[in-house]
Design a protein that fits this description.
The protein has 12 helices and 7 strands. The chain is of the alpha/beta class. It has one domain (about 5-250): P-loop containing nucleotide triphosphate hydrolases (Rossmann fold, 3-Layer(aba) Sandwich), CATH 3.40.50.300. Helix 8 links the parallel strand 6 and strand 7 (about 175-185). The longest helix has 16 residues, at about 235-250. The chain is globular, with a radius of gyration of 17 Å. The structure holds adenosine-5'-diphosphate (ADP) and magnesium ion. Magnesium ion binds near residues 17 and 44. It comes from Rufibacter tibetensis.
Length: about 260
């Protein structure tokens, strides 16, 4: 049975999409069958692995609300072992339309749980909000990765996110775990970066992944080539760090590392 991992933080620009794409690609590189689910109307994960969101007709939303079958929208990516459920801008309207549906928090779970037979890992790239689609993602997920940018105000908003996770655990998804806090955009030369690492580790201790993602230009430029960093420059520090994260997650979950 596969594991569903949501990458969430209501703060924008902390590295959710970069982490979702590159973790998914790294798990695929380790030959785990991986599905990347783009749950953000901005569709950055969709374009980041080479699809034009303008060409996308159906997204996770059509599966959640209109009963479109996942087989009809799952796209195979240019990377072996990696498939995508894409997003498009209409996902913005989804929140509003879903408000009146019964079990409105449960829709994504109904769509994704049957796919756990087909995939080892399902990675959801959440939008920068704690709205209904993100609540759906956290209700569907077995665990959540929280990217934390090594910047000023790194911890800002984390309390609210952890509180939302607690509410979801108590009302909707008692099995939801925190897979880990992921420090991103770390710059070894900056005192601030080091202070953030220390502060986050002090507060959250063993909840923080050992792997720290450095600030790396290959990570920021690879989306413009429509590929994950591992295809853009496999030797880059960015690509290697996400491969290390994938290994850390695989080991933590007691799945044998394939390579
Ligand atoms: P989010 O999805 O949380 O909004 P993104 O993953 O889109 O965040 O990252 C925000 C911006 O920072 C993007 O331009 C992205 O390319 C860049 N970025 C993310 N992680 C890194 C990194 N480790 N090194 C350099 N740039 C990064
Ligand atoms: Mg994003």
């Amino acid at each position: 049975m596969g594991k569903i991992i949501a990458v969430a933080n209501q703060k924008g620009g902390v590295g959710k999409t970069t982490s979702a794409i590159n973790l998914a690609a790294s798990l695929a590189a380790l030959e785990y069958r991986t599905l990347l689910v783009d749950a953000d109307p901005q569709a950055n994960a969709t374009s980041g692995i080479g699809f034009d969101p303008k060409d996308i007709e159906n997204s996770i939303y059509e599966c959640m609300v209109d009963g479109v079958k996942t087989e009809d929208i799952i796209m195979s990516s240019p990377i072996d072992f990696l498939d995508l459920i894409p997003s498009h801008i209409d996902l913005v309207g989804a929140e509003v339309e879903m408000i009146n549906l019964p079990n409105r928090e449960d829709k994504m779970k109904q769509v994704l749980v049957p796919l756990k037979e087909k995939y080892d890992f399902i990675i959801i790239d959440c939008s920068p909000s704690l709205g209904l689609i993100t609540v759906n993602s956290l209700t569907a997920a077995d665990s959540v990765i929280i990217p934390v940018q090594c910047e000023y105000f790194a911890l800002e908003g984390l309390g609210k996110l952890l509180n939302t996770i607690k509410i979801i655990q108590s009302r909707l998804n008692p099995d939801l775990e925190i897979e880990g806090l992921l420090l991103t955009m770390y710059d070894v030369r900056l005192r601030l970066s080091n202070q953030v690492v220390e502060e986050v580790k002090m507060h959250f201790q063993q909840m923080v992944f050992d792997t720290i993602i450095p600030r790396n230009v290959k990570l920021s430029e690879s989306p413009s080539f429509g590929v994950p960093a591992i295809l853009h420059d496999a030797e880059s520090k960015g690509a290697i760090s996400y491969l290390n994260l994938a290994r850390e997650i695989v080991e933590k979950n007691g799945v044998a590392v394939a390579q």
